[in-house]
Amino acid sequence: MELSLLLLLAVLTGLLLLLARGHPKARGSLPPGPRPLPFLGNLLQMDRRGLLKSFLRLQEKYGDVFTVYLGPRPVVMLCGTEAIREALVNHAEAFSGRGKVHIIDPVFRGYGVIFSNGERWKVLRRFSVATMKDFGMGKRSVEERIQEEAQSLVEELQKSQGAPQDPTEYFQSITANIICSIVFGKRFDYRDPKFLRLLDLLFQSFLHTSSFAGQLFELYSSFLQYFPGPHKQIYRNLQEVNAFIGRSVAEHRETLDPSDPRDFIDTFLLCMEKEKSNPKSEFHEENLIFTVLSLFFAGTETSSTTLRYGFLILLKYPHVTERVHKEIDQVIGAHRPPALNDRAKMPYTEAVIHEMQRFADLIPIGVPHMVTKDTQFRGHMIPKGTEVYPILSSALHDPRYFEKPYTFNPDHFLDASGALKKNNAFMPFSVGKRICLGEGLAYSELFLFFTTILQNFSLASPVAPEDIDLTPRKSGFGRFPQTYQIQFLPRQ
């Protein structure tokens, strides 16, 4: 009812503006697309099932590069593997700007490593990549952290004695604890109420971005921001998370030893002290808090949701689980924990994990980009500041690269001899200069958590495999699997 009222108000306002403003003027020579109405943009061409369905339907008519008016603003859509790679890799600098996710922009306001632009983004990304490597990402120390966390999970799952349970909190906790160990210098107990509260705040915020109301807000944020809606709840949620981060920063400041930085926050505080006389420095508290929020938000939800989707897929296809069990038994055995160097000898398991990421399609419309200068692209002039959506789902389901794009099939990543093969359409973390800076960490987590769980447990479900539904619960900015119950049965 609330959504219908908001939409009606938006339409009425648009009709009034139609009389006052006339037709929108194209800037530059934008790619073709459906003709927009003033203020309403291409609302009439939008599919009720969401933005992704709308964009994929328009791709069929206008090709891989086209323009859609989301409300009054034009956004260039990139669909298919070639178009996305051509823009984000071949024209990497021009397409390296960050567009807005309007429903969370009032929280971030251009601060932090994910949603910043220009020199701020370059400084924060260089710092974040280097510092996360120093504290484990890409080194053996992070492997050991993941292995230890995986063993803690095994002990916790053993306590369940095979009872059916929702795995959401477990998967959120283990992925969040890896980020926490790097950023905060510590992990949390799975039953810590403050920790569980933070995880729920992040999860609910991510869900709200993918709701129908959340997608509608991306079209008419300038108008809907004044009304009740999910944006208000997201703002409250993330401000509560920021308050937690702020308290942690204050604690770090009080106990900081300049000769022995413990974690990401300590290292940032040392840079703040070093550059305190520079009025243009990007090392200040707002960038620290919002960079930590970015890492916490992105580093928890993407990996945990992939695991959640992945284990639902294994329940649906027990023959896949059986082959992974066999490969684990042959390569690792039962008496040592899985290690990252096992990956090279486990092509089927690796292919299953890749296919889980492809099939889960967690960020289907990608995080918005923005062109940093007037850019010639495929015969069109895209003006500086224009937003660009790389529709990652269109690459992950590209029929030119995947024989059965809408079917779960690990053979998509195996060659004729059974070896793992590269696929240029595989871009779950995007590509180019804005590729997820935690990509390597996420791959390590997925492999070690996945193999450790399957080394120790068989899987069962109260629901028969043929009745398990892989249709996403929500599909907007993010995709989420249906809620389900799973049994972890100790392997003999």
Automatic annotation (TrEMBL):
Question: Biological process GO annotation list?
Answer: epoxygenase P450 pathway; ketone metabolic process; steroid metabolic process; xenobiotic catabolic process
**Cofactors (names):** heme
- Can you tell me which residues the record assigns to a coiled coil? none
Topology in the lipid bilayer is annotated as:
Peripheral membrane protein
The UniProt similarity line reads: Belongs to the cytochrome P450 family.
Q: Which SUPFAM superfamilies match?
A: Cytochrome P450
Molecular function (GO) terms for this protein are:
anandamide 11,12 epoxidase activity; anandamide 14,15 epoxidase activity; anandamide 8,9 epoxidase activity; arachidonate epoxygenase activity; estrogen 2-hydroxylase activity; heme binding; iron ion binding; testosterone 16-alpha-hydroxylase activity
**The protein's name:** Cytochrome P450 family 2 subfamily B member 6
Q: Where in the cell is it found?
A: Endoplasmic reticulum membrane; Microsome membrane
Q: Where does it primarily localize?
A: endoplasmic reticulum
UniProt key word Metal-binding: yes
Q: Could you say which residues bind heme here?
A: 436
Q: Which UniProt keywords apply?
A: Endoplasmic reticulum, Heme, Iron, Membrane, Metal-binding, Microsome, Monooxygenase, Oxidoreductase, Signal
Question: Where does the record locate the signal sequence feature?
Answer: 1-22
Q: Which organism is it from?
A: Catagonus wagneri (Chacoan peccary)
Q: Sorted alphabetically, which Pfam families does this protein's record hold?
A: p450 (PF00067)
Return the PANTHER family for the record: CYTOCHROME P450 2B6, CYTOCHROME P450 508A4-RELATED
GO cellular component term of the entry, any: endoplasmic reticulum membrane
